[in-house]
């Protein structure tokens, strides 16, 4: 049976679409059981609807604090029966409950631990990479812990940085690799999961 994933988004939802397409094409043994969005105007909402998915929108302003927001987000994932959460352009720091440790993956558009942490998102990352004069950049998929861009790394892919690059050029080149890296990381994560319930006992 395909692996139920929740995809959390704040932006345009290009990764969400990539996961849906790969699953529909039979190239990824997963199905989207929840799309959760934290911005009412996010492009990801319309993109999800195109595929018959109705996102759950949770607005941070409706919650007392970030802990309460996180609790509601993880409750929604549990209710939807999701087993893994993918943060796909989701910009909010989540408080990961114990039962979700090792089950939340994030993609970041740099080679972590460089250019990660608070404030490093979207074009800010690529501008900083160019300003520093890096000759390579790339993307990282990692497990999420309680710190921004911090947990154990699953997949990294690199790209060259050209002297003539604008931040947009670099973002485009990195994003092409992101579309490969995130599904690859999900496949590795799924392979590493313990055998499904009801697996035969080998002793006793
Ligand atoms: C990507 O650059 C990713 O690394 C970052 O958000 C961007 C994707 O957003 N975390 P989206 O899929 O277009 O919403």
Keywords:
204 residues, alpha/beta, Rossmann fold, seven-stranded mixed β-sheet, disordered C terminus, binds 5-O-phosphono-beta-D-ribofuranosylamine
What does the model show?
The chain has 204 residues and is an alpha/beta fold. It contains 5 helices and 7 strands. It has helices at residues 14-24, 43-50, 66-79, 123-132, 167-192, and strands spanning 3-9, 30-37, 56-57, 84-87, 104-108, 136-143, 153-160. A 7-stranded mixed beta sheet has the order 3-2-1-4-5-6-7, sandwiched between helices. Strand 1, helix 1 (14-24) and strand 2 (30-37) form a beta-alpha-beta unit. Helix 1 (14-24) packs across helix 5 (167-192). It starts with a strand and ends in a 12-residue tail after the last helix. 5-O-phosphono-beta-D-ribofuranosylamine binds at residues 9, 11-15, 44, 88-89, 107-109, 175, 178.
Q: What compounds sit in this structure? A: 5-O-phosphono-beta-D-ribofuranosylamine
The helicity comes to 25-40%
Number of strands: 7
The CATH homologous superfamily is called: Formyl transferase, N-terminal domain
Q: Determine the structural class based on helices, strands and strand pairing.
A: alpha/beta
Q: Based on the structure given, which CATH architecture is correct? A: 3-Layer(aba) Sandwich
Q: Biggest sheet, strands in spatial order?
A: 3-2-1-4-5-6-7
């Amino acid at each position: 049976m395909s692996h139920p994933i929740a995809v959390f988004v704040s932006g345009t939802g290009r990764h969400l679409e990539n996961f849906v397409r790969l699953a529909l094409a039979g190239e990824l043994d997963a199905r989207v059981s929840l799309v959760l969005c934290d911005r009412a105007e996010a492009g990801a909402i319309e993109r999800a609807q195109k595929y018959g998915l109705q996102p759950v929108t949770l607005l941070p302003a409706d919650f007392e604090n970030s802990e309460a927001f996180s609790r509601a987000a993880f409750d929604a994932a549990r209710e939807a029966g999701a087993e893994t959460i993918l943060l796909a352009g989701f910009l909010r720091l989540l408080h990961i409950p114990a039962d979700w440790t090792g089950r939340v993956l994030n993609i970041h558009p740099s080679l972590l631990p460089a250019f990660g942490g608070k404030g490093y998102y979207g074009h800010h990352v690529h501008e900083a990479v160019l300003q520093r004069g890096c000759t390579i950049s790339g993307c990282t998929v990692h497990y999420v812990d309680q710190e921004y861009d911090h947990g154990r790394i699953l997949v990294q892919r690199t790209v060259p940085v050209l002297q003539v690059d604008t931040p947009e050029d670099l973002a485009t080149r990195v994003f092409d690799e992101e579309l490969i890296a995130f599904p690859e990381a999900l496949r590795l994560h799924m392979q590493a999961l313990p055998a499904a319930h009801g697996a035969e006992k080998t002793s006793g």
